[in-house]
Amino acid sequence: MEDKTNITIQNTAGEENPNRTCLEHPEDTKGILEVNNLSAWYGKTLAIKNISMSIRAKTITAIIGPSGCGKSTFIRCLNRMHEVAHGGHAEGCIMLDGRDIYARDADPVVIRRRIGMVFQKPAPFPMMSVFDNVAAGLKLTQFWSRHWELEEVVERSLRQAALWDEVKDKLHQSGASLSGGQQQRLCIARAIAVQPEIILLDEPCSALDPASTLKIEDLMRSLVTEYSIVIVTHNMQQAARVSDMAGFFLADQDRSGILIEYGKTSQLFTNPKDKRTEDYITGRFG
Amino acid sequence: MMNLQEHGQARRKFINQLMLVLCGTAAAIAILVLVLILGYTLFKGISYINLNILIQAAKPMGQAGGGMRNEIFGTLILVLLGCVFALPIGVLAGIYLAEFANPRVAATIRFTADILSGVPSIVVGVFVYAIMVMPMHSFSALSGGVALAVIMVPVVARTAEESLRLVPDSMREAALALGITRWRAVVGVVMPGAMTGIITGIMLGVARIAGETAPLLFTALGSSFGVQGLLKPIGSLSLIIYKDALSPYPTDQQHAWAGAFLLVLLVLGISILVRWVSNRKHN
Question: Chain A partners of B176 at a C-beta cutoff of 8 Å?
Fold first, then answer.
């Protein structure tokens, strides 16, 4: 029982390392998520090591790499979900709008409202209706909410998630009654209902069939006009199809994930600078 | 080669069958005992049940007639008091164990709760006698309720914890990722998913305390004067069964059977009601 991954409060990120120097520079960095020397641990295991990259606003950034290279850990650090897992702990700087999200006075709850996340396995709240699922983020963060306001938000979010036409007649059925692909789009609708600036997608299509995958990819392209999107995928074709920027992760000899290459998707896939990137995208391993 | 295999197969099949039969027999014996207890109580009790039992107050010892209206009310009041004290503490403790406590603290509390639920109920009665009845210089319904609550808390806390743990972590993560605080996530997302289990735990607790006698002996005491308020002694079905069953008078013994019948019916009724409510809510 003790071994069960339990969610515990661990707010050590900002406190354990008094030497961290994150130069906050709020000017001219609107919407940019800047990662500097980010390392993350599970207990004593170093999962990712010294990652630095600058994630652009209103762009789809794909994180690719073989299994176990720390892609998911990395993306979970971006909205401080990493520290929620048992023994999760991160060091380094992540700046949103030039402000350090790991600063001592930064509230993870507020950060997660600005940086939403959709997980690998569709996770609609099973005891809530479709409507309540989408409204959950608002209902559970406000003291009270007017129903017509919620209705507006739910419809807008479901339309944005390209799900409205399919579920408008079953808004009061359980969210678990939808198909897998619909559930995942429901989760995306739920994430955008709280109007984040950035949406993190952690392998959102790995549990879906090709048709549903295509729908989610189309959806990403339409959402990127309003939101920045970071997607973790180990489907390279998907990364090549949807993303503007791509980062390639690989586990080093200590099995810690490192960033091998980061650049424009077109350039990374056609003309990689690093031999290891080339080997991976041409299918020589992974 | 083939023969050898078949030989082994027959042996395995036999052992498989044997174990199945053993398990089935054990289950049948367990059910049989339960059915016998319930059946005998209901069978013996129902013949002494009449309207007077339900609506009349008790008559002095040895006299025929009279009923146990006051004891029925007393049991309901005591169970209600027990719930008022035990439910908030039990459910919140369960939430703490499942959601917030760090593993080492949780293990300690869990261990303590398990021990507490194993403490003989008469010891609980003596304990509450010492901390409430003596200082207040009176047996009382209130102290009876507290004694029952002490018995109920670990039952509710542990079942609440277990059912909260059954809610997958992906639900908690999904809620946190929406920028919901941990507390709102627990109340709004995790608890609804565990509600059936929590209600089952409460039901188990109520059924348990409704039939308790020992903790009431030194606290609620029993009363021949009906319900006089929370700070006065109060009767209960279990206490009257205890008293009447030991009585030499046949009329009293008949009352004991009737009381046992009512108590069984009450506990059964509570179980069915709560199950029905939780099913309806779930659907």
Answer: 7, 81, 84, 112
